[in-house]
Sequence to fold (78 residues):
Amino acid sequence: MDLYPDAPPSFPEHEGKGLFISYCAICHSLKYISTQPDFPAKTWEAEVNKMIIKYHAPIDSATAKIITTYLVAVKSKH
Ligand code: HEC
Fold:
């Protein structure tokens, strides 16, 4: 449980974290991600693509790949 419920969620250190933090908090809180269950890799890939295609997130494909890899590394069942 968070000690300060309104504080931004913290995410594990891993390659790609910086890009994830900068790009995925443009439109909504990072809680949209922290409150999700651990997703399989395919689901994160689809989720990131949905942000780009449906909601027009300004993320190029190379960056999207790094962010997806980050999410799979820290928030996925292996
Ligand atoms: C251009 C704006 C925008 C950006 C940038 C963005 N999102 Fe979203 N995201 C949305 C919108 C809009 C929703 C739906 C909000 C709602 O339903 O209340 C959403 C919802 C979500 C959800 C909740 C589940 C769902 O599919 O609705 C997740 C998870 C999510 N985003 C992850 C991400 C990740 C990961 C990134 C970074 C790659 C990201 N978002 C970047 C706009 C964005």
About this structure: Residues 45 and 65 are 8 Å apart (CA to CA). The chain has a mean pLDDT of 93. Residues 23-24, 26-28, 32-33, 36, 47-48, 50-51, 55-57, 59, 67 surround heme C (CB under 6 Å).
